[in-house]
Amino acid sequence: MRRRTAGPSTLAIHGDVPARAAHDPVAAPIYQSSTFVSPVGSSEEVLYTRYGNNPNQLRLAERLARLEGAEAAIFVASGMGATALAHLAVLNPGDHLLSSDWIYGGTRQLFTEEFTRFGIEVSFVNPDKRREWRSKLRKNTRGIFIESPTNPLMRVLDVQWLAVLAEAEGIALLVDSTFASPINYRPLEHGADVVIHSVTKYLNGHSDIVAGAVAGAETIVEEVRSRMKVWGQALDPHAAWLIERGMKTLAVRVQRHNQTGMEVATWLEQQPKVRRVHYPGLASHPDHALAARTLDGFGGMVGVELSGGPRAAERCLRALRLITHAPSLGGVESLVSEPRFTSHAALTPDERAAAGIPDGFLRLSLGLEDAADLIEDLTRGLAAV
Fold it and tell me: Is there a single domain that holds both residue 220 and residue 142?
């Protein structure tokens, strides 16, 4: 009989853990050790935490691979580390990368400042202009990179269309799926080759560690692992243990994020002091039809444009009591940030406005608080505008 594929909650909690013997611990122990005893006269793999094969690291990797439907996965010390290593696993000096223009500021800096030092060229494409993807391809193009949903406009890109293009050209498609998590979207199912996560966000979900992850084919993950060994980006065993604990509740957390996100976004769209709400679950969002067709949930991230610009944003932030003014996202607590000071600080006000992120834009990461309490807090903030 064919084995039934376990559901996301079961996978997040158990993964492929074998049957437990009597007196085994229910919660996995922390293997807080840098090294392990090697058998004498054996060519078996050396167990060393910097190599990413500590038992805590391996348990975590297996869990994410199952959730993403990947052959393999690996966790590293940060989301930026995961992004860098994933690209260097498929790119070499002299290669060309085609990137979406709608990406995190740190990733753009990596591409424009660091990759050039390695002899890797990067061109940017406005994803709204499909013809640009083809017109900017070169003979030495070896990869396409996108984020979906994007930060902070929550745009949803057509991964399947890009996958067809990438396959036809024989190049890799890399997708940063941090905002969706494998609960709401699994890019490999739509033709992507590599999935990248900032584990700091939804996968961990408790704002207490920094980590990243890459999932995909075994060959690509091994390329990532070989570079991780040299560059020293292995994840600490205690951090891995905390992430595993956080991932056990990933499915139920994301379900709550989805519910609260929809409720708060719908309410915000009705407020007179709000110029525009960016949330893919709303019919007003430019990618609503695509999001409804491809996502299993719309998430807890909401972009808000206030009518009064930056001054209105500051007044609103000062009046909030429950929602914390802090960067990052995906935790159990609700956070709010201004892209002009965080993800898009490197751009001028005019450049941000041209990108659809005018000053006065707030990015909400809605947590697990009661939606009614979050709405009450936002009511207090808007009243101060």
Answer: yes
End-to-end C-alpha distance for the chain, whole angstroms: 62
- Residue 13 domain flag: yes
The answer to whether residues 185 and 199 belong to one domain is yes
CATH at residue 18:
3.40.640.10
Q: Within 10 Å of residue 319's Cβ, how many Cβ atoms?
A: 16
Positions annotated as catalytic residues are 50, 104, 176, 201
Q: In sequence order, what are the residues at sequence separation of 6 or more whose Cβ sits closer than 8 angstroms to the Cβ of residue 54?
A: 31, 33, 47, 234, 237, 240
pLDDT per residue as tens, the chain (385 positions): 334 478 999 999 888 766 788 988 999 999 999 999 999 998 899 999 999 999 999 999 999 999 999 999 999 999 999 999 999 999 999 999 999 999 998 999 999 999 999 999 999 999 999 999 999 999 999 999 999 999 999 999 999 999 999 999 999 999 999 999 999 999 999 999 999 999 999 999 999 999 999 999 999 999 999 999 999 999 999 999 999 999 999 999 999 999 999 999 999 999 999 999 999 999 999 999 999 999 999 999 999 999 999 999 999 999 999 999 999 999 999 999 999 998 888 788 888 888 899 998 999 999 999 999 999 999 999 999 9
pTM: 0.95
Structural element, H or E, at residue 315? helix 309-319
